[in-house]
Amino acid sequence: IAENIKNPLNNEGKQLYSSSNAGLLKLLKLEASFMENIKIYTNKLAEKVKNLRAFIDSVDYRPIETIEDREKYVSNPLNAFSLVRRTHQDLPMWHNYTQQMVGMEELYALEEIAVKAPDDEDMNYSLQGMHRLERIYGLEATDLARGLIQDIKYDVKMSVRDCFALGEHKYQQEDYQRASMWFRMTLKHKPEENVEIINEILGDINDKLRKHYAASMIIFGLIKSDPTLTIAKSQAIAFEALSKASITDLSSLITELLRQSDEEIVREMNINGTAPSDYELGCRGLLPKRKNLYCSYDFSTTPFLRIAPTKQETISLDPYIVMHHEVLYKDEIAELKLHAKNKFKVTDANRLRVESLRERMINRITDIAGFGFHITHELHMPDHDLVSYYKPNRDYAYWGGPKVTVLFFASDVVGGATVFTKSKVSVFPRKGSSLFWYNLLDDGTPDPRSVQAECPVLNGNK
User: How many Cβ atoms are within 10 Å of 66's Cβ, its own excluded?
Assistant: First the structure.
């Protein structure tokens, strides 16, 4: 799925907001700053409007409709004098007031913030991340649009334009099944407040939405009913039919399509669908459970464990994969996260703390692995967020890398499993635990069963 996706984490020249939780936190702060400046600017505009209304009220201006009434008005010397004085003294000053720019400081701040907004590459990375989540976990737009992820309801409300953007991305990717479902949820969305004003500023999506929903449903239906049809041929048929359809015809079609319940349409669309891969099954926790496994205390690997054994859970006997529980403590996790942004660069201020942490980690890994070693590179904590995705990893074994891998989990998340695709084994993160496996066989050759892939995280930060 992610074969052709550029990984922004390897792009030293640019860091996308959507590539990490740290980046998304910066973006959240950016949006908060934008909204705060908008509020201040709006208040200043409101103050100016209030002052101008006070001017209008003070003049007690009422339009005089007829020529006769206007002549009567100016013929009165009091009215005449007041008119001349107002237009000579007040009018220029009120004109000057109207020309005064309001909220210039906020306008400059808004301009600086707008320059830092995510660009097309950032937006595309986020859209592709959402697409991967849907495909890997088999998530439906009918659930996601309501804030439901794997039967867990989150306090999230996707807007009309959120749903439309996801549908439009899938439409451009020619994934018409998923595109149609997101368009469907857009059409069924409760009308938002001030929609006319919002459409005037952001643009009205309704016309494109209706046409693309109809097109995606027709194209998907054609391919579903006749698998020999190519996408190009189905597109040609659908576009020709829609070009000849009247507005009434299009409205009738959409009304008929929306008459079905969400459950019915989802069930019909997934009939004879593509079976999930072993990787996808692993991410979903649906791989067959292995038998004859056990939990135990590990006393054997180092002398220290004789007085402080680790809690060991056997995940697989062949290949040998185990989890050790409660081997990373809360204070260590906090310290790891504290230094993660700096990738544990040693400075005079933190030298003792970092070296102490490094030493504890080395001893911990030695206890788990059963043999000593030296860390020649600096400690690093990868940031696997909602859209991060790593393809099957062969680097350890095939590049002459370490004999074993010990992977520590510093947080609890939803999703984010480590899947051994050759062995059909998946392991979900558990805060404070570690995952251990061998990369090489006894003769020193690479063990292809050690190939593993990380699943994207559904909620949290792995």
Answer: 8
> From CA 51, how far away is CA 58, in angstroms rounded?
11
200/197 Cα distance (integer angstroms): 5
SS (H, E, C) the chain: CCCCCCCHHHCCCCCCHHHCHHHHHHHHHHHHHHHHHHHHHHHHHHHHHHHHHHHHHHHCCCCCCCHHHHHHHHHCHHHHHHHHHHHHHHHHHHHHHHHCCCCHHHHHHHHHHHHCCCCHHHHHHHHHHHHHHHHHHCCCHHHHCCCEECCEECCCCCCHHHHHHHHHHHHHCCCHHHHHHHHHHHHHCCCCCCHHHHHHHHCCCHHHHHHHHHHHHHHHHHHHHCCCCCHHHHHHHHHHHHHHCCHHHHHHHHHHHHHCCHHHHHHHHCCCCCCCCHHHHHHCCCCCCCCCCCEEEECCCCHHHHCCCEEEEEEECCCCEEEEECCCCHHHHHHHHHHHCCCCCCCCCCHHHHHHHHHHHHHHHHHHHCCCCCCCCCCCCCCCCCCCCEEEECHHHHCCCCCEEEEECCCCCEECCEEECCCCEEECCCCCCEEEEECECCCCCECHHHCEEECCEEECCC
Q: Give the tens place of pLDDT for each residue, 24-58.
A: 889 999 999 999 999 999 999 999 999 988 888 88
Supply the pTM of this predicted model: 0.81
pLDDT in tens, 108-152: 999 999 999 999 999 999 999 999 999 999 999 999 999 999 888
